[in-house]
Amino acid sequence: MSKNRRNGSRGHQAHGHQKRRPPAAKTLREPAIFAKDSGTDSEVPHDKVTLAQARRGTPAHRPVRVYADGIFDLFHSGHARALMQAKNLFPNTCLIVGVCSDQLTLKYKGYTVMTEAERYEALIHCRYVDEVVRDAPWTITPEFLKKHRIDFVAHDDIPYTSAGSEDVYKHIKAAGMFVATQRTEGISTSDLITRIVRNYDVYVRRNLQRGYTARELNVGFINENKYRLQNQVDKMKEKVRTVEEKSKDLVHRVEEKSHDLILKWEEKSREFIGNFLELFGPDGPWHMIQERSGRVLQALSPYQSPHTSPSSSPTRGRSRSPPAL
Questions:
Q1: For the chain, is the Cβ count within 10 Å smaller at the N or the C terminus?
Q2: How far is the C-alpha of 82 from the C-alpha of 255, rounded, in Å?
C-alpha cells in the first residue's frame, strides 16, 4: 500500500489513557485503539519471530505485529483491500497502521483532501485494523520499529520513491522484515481526485442546487450565475423530456386501444357477415322459408295458362251465312 493510496483501519477511542485489550478479544463493535506516544506498554515479552514461525502461527498471547503505513486520503476500497491482505498475512496478526500528518504529507507529497483527524478517524473504523499510529514517520527507523514492537512491515512490492530515496522500504527489505501485499488496480486517491476535477462543473452545479453558497465553493460571481443558468436550462430540458415521455406514453396507449378496437371491429364484422350469410344465404333458413311459402301459394292458387295460349285466345268474328230462303 503506497503512501499515495494507503489502507484503512478502525474506530476511535478516547485520546487519553486507553485500556489495552488482547487483539483476540476485540469485537467489531469497537473501533481500533490509538497507539500511545510512548509505544506499547504490554508486559508480554516480545521475542523476535522469524517469517517461518509467523506463518506457522504464534501463541494467542503473542500475535505477530504487522505494520502498514500511508496517507489514506479519501479512504477507499483499494486501501481496505491492502489492509485486509496485511491482516491475513499470518494466522495470528495484530495490524498496526501508521498515518502521516498533514504537515509531513504536504512536505513530501502535497495537499490532501481530508485532514489528518479525518484520516485517523477513517482508519480506526476499518475492520482489519487493531491499532493506529498518528503522525507516523515518513521513513521507518529502527527506533520506531522497536518502540512499537513491530515484527514485519507490509506494503506492495513496487519500490516507493520519496524523500530522496529510490525506495523508502529498502532497509526494511534488507532486514528481512518486509512482506508484500498486492495493489488493487483501477482505484486510487489520485484517480478519484482526477475524476472530480474532470467533472468540476457538474459537482459545482450540483452543490449549488443543494444549498451551498458560491463563497463556500470558491466560485466567482460570473461563474455562479452561469452555473445557475445552466441548472435552470437543465430543469427546463427535464420538463420537456417529461412531457415528451408522457406524450409518447399517451400516444402509445391510444395506438394500443385503436389497434384493439380495430381487431374487435374486424372480429364482430366477420361474425356479423357470417351470421347474415348463415341466415340469408342460399342454404339458410330464410331461403328455405321463401321456397316453402312459394309452394303453399302455388297450391292454393294454381297457375293458369297464359292469355296468349290458343285455348284462351279471343274468337274472331265471322260473317254469318245468309239465312236460307
A1: C
A2: 58
Residue 104's CB is within 10 A of a number of other CB atoms, namely 17
Q: Which cell numbers hold the place of 187?
A: 482505484
Domains in the chain (CATH in brackets) are 23-198 (3.40.50.620)
Alpha helices in the chain (DSSP H): 51-56, 77-87, 102-108, 116-124, 142-147, 170-174, 189-198, 200-209, 221-280, 285-300
Q: What is the pTM of this model?
A: 0.62
Query: pLDDT tens, 120-169?
Result: 999 999 999 999 999 999 999 999 999 999 999 999 988 888 767 888 99
Number of C-beta neighbours around residue 39 at 10 A: 15
How many residues does this entry show for the chain?
A: 325
CA distances from 193 to 4, 60, 78, 107 (A): 12, 42, 15, 19
Distance, CA of 190 to CA of 110 (rounded, Å): 12
